[in-house]
Amino acid sequence: MTYATDRMHEEIAYVAYHFHWSHAEILDLEHRDRRRYVEQIATLVTRAEAER
Question: DUF6760 domain: from which residue to which, for each copy (predicted)?
Fold first, then answer.
């Protein structure tokens, strides 16, 4: 099973936007590690929005 290219690009953009990492740095991550960063960023964003 392959991971959807559109989904992968969304994850790359999301991590790059929030962490300012390069495309290459993000692609070097294992899939599960990239997903974990996406989930953690989403948690932080949600928490910050709730505190406003």
Answer: 3-48
Whats the size of the chain, residue-wise? 52
Residue 31 has pLDDT above 60, yes or no: yes
Cα–Cα distance, 45 to 29 (Å, whole number): 21
> Which structure tokens are listed for 19?
């962490």
State the pTM of this model.
0.82
Q: What is the tally of structural domains in the chain?
A: 1
Parent domain of 22? 5-50
Q: Which of 40, 11, 36 is nearest to 26 (CA)?
A: 11
Q: Residue 52 and residue 48: Cα distance in Å, rounded?
A: 7
